[in-house]
Write a structure and sequence with these properties.
single chain; about 425 residues; Rossmann fold; five-stranded parallel β-sheet; five-stranded mixed β-barrel; about 30% helix
């Protein structure tokens, strides 16, 4: 059977799609690059914002119109809205999040255990989403009760995968039998509440234990961590950066720089604790990129609270981040809170926060001009001048472009960073 896979939303959704790809291949099926070739399309949906919800519906309609013969949907939007998903033309089945880890085995009516008999080497999912980085799901669900979040309802309580399962997935991603070489040069650990990994295991472990094990027991060239809640990092965590294979990048969601707003969000941190954490991180790894998430216009956010956030964000000197205009999600506590902020004011506050992050992000990038950094090339396009236009990322998440006479896709090479333009740094490859 010919299978088309696609995903909307977070890195966790992408990691699940990559798992489905390995399992379909292990069962003898073929992955195709476009939905018009597919006998079956599987779409992993997202519901984190109204925009993600809309994108999920649009993606399903687009794939069905393109000619996919049968479409199965899973993920947060379809789990929370199964009737809406099934009402879309061409959708034959909704697989709720609670069953998504067994999606392939249930669709094919084969035992889950067949996928564990022999590791399957990584082959890129066909199409435009060819990735040099492999997303590995280590944890699912969340036990936090942030009042703005619907993910806890959609994904359920927190649960960790075992060290052995994670190591097996990492080793598979690092192997390739295809040409050109598609073995991952960078592994990204993902989860709904990644930092809680191991706390539900017996004996209880911390995320740093998993990172140590991967670095010790595999030859991963680069290891990156996706979003971590700031309260999950203990004093020993930052010693991990002594191993240069661990990417100098932490994404630590702040959401607000106001103590009062953070309380209404039910966040388990405050500005003082967050600032102390950044000091510890930068003392351990001075060149580390720290990025964040912010919410503009949370219910009850006064003008004073907003300016507390602006001042705090400016003080933290983030290397970048995302700003989300507050979007009331039905079923979340924040959706029922009084003093909802007018939409236009939410947008205005969003723009001010984005400007701040852009400014601090550019300042971080300028620190590295004239230095030599290792870049993993994620795209390579042959130009009319017969030169390859390359784009990629440093381990501290600087976006770099350069030209080369060779196709260096999925290779890590040293690059002299020369100039900065529109958020992308230009460089010259060091021979």
């Amino acid at each position: 059977m010919k299978i088309y896979l696609d995903s909307i939303g977070c890195r966790l959704n992408q990691s699940e799609i990559e798992l489905y790809a390995r399992q379909f291949r292990a069962a003898g099926h073929t992955l195709v690059a476009t939905p018009n070739e597919a006998e079956l399309a599987v779409i992993n949906t997202c519901n984190v914002t109204h925009a993600a919800e809309s994108d999920s519906r649009s993606k399903i309609r687009q794939i069905v119109r393109a000619g996919a013969k049968d479409t199965v949907v899973t993920g947060c939007w379809s789990t929370l809205n199964p009737e809406d998903a099934l009402s879309l033309t061409g959708v034959s089945q909704v697989v709720p999040n609670a069953d998504k880890d067994r999606l392939v085995s249930n669709l094919l009516q084969v035992p889950q255990e067949i996928f564990d008999l022999e590791p399957v080497s990584r082959v890129l999912i066909p199409g435009t989403r060819q990735r040099t980085r492999a997303f590995i799901k280590v944890q699912d669900g969340c036990d936090n009760r942030c009042t703005f979040c619907i993910t806890t309802i959609a994904r359920g309580s927190g649960r960790s995968r075992s060290e052995e399962e994670v190591l097996a997935d990492v080793r598979s991603a690092l192997v390739s039998n295809s040409y050109p070489d598609s073995a991952a040069k960078e592994i990204i650990l993902t989860g709904v509440h990644l930092g809680s990994w191991g706390q539900d295991l017996s004996p209880s472990l911390r995320i740093r234990h998993l990172v140590e094990k991967i670095l010790t027991e595999t030859e991963v060239p680069r290891l990156r961590l996706s979003s971590l809640e700031p309260w999950d990092l203990d004093a020993d965590f930052f010693t991990l950066f002594e191993d240069t294979r661990l990417c100098r990048h932490l994404h630590l969601p702040l959401q607000s720089g106001s103590t009062a707003t953070l309380r209404r969000m039910a966040r388990k941190t405050n500005p003082t604790a967050f600032a102390d954490l950044l000091i510890s991180a930068r003392n351990a790894c001075p060149e580390i990129a720290i990025t964040t998430d912010l919410i503009a216009g949370f219910p009850g956010e006064t003008e004073q609270e907003f300016y507390e956030t602006l001042d705090f964000v400016k003080e933290m000197n983030f290397a970048g981040g995302h700003v989300f205009t507050f979007s009331p999600r039905p079923g979340s506590a924040a959706a029922e809170m009084p003093e909802q902020i007018p939409f236009q004011l939410r947008k205005e506050r969003n723009a001010k926060l984005r400007d701040l992050l852009t400014e601090s992000g550019q300042a971080y990038q300028f620190r590295f001009l004239d230095s030599t950094q290792l870049v993993l090339w994620e795209s390579a396009t042959l130009s009319n001048s017969k030169l390859w236009q390359l784009r990629g990322l440093t381990d501290n998440y600087l976006r770099v472009s350069a030209q080369s006479t060779n196709n260096l896709w999925n290779m890590i090479t040293p690059v002299q960073l020369t100039s900065n333009s529109s958020g992308e740094i230009e460089g010259q490859i060091v021979n």
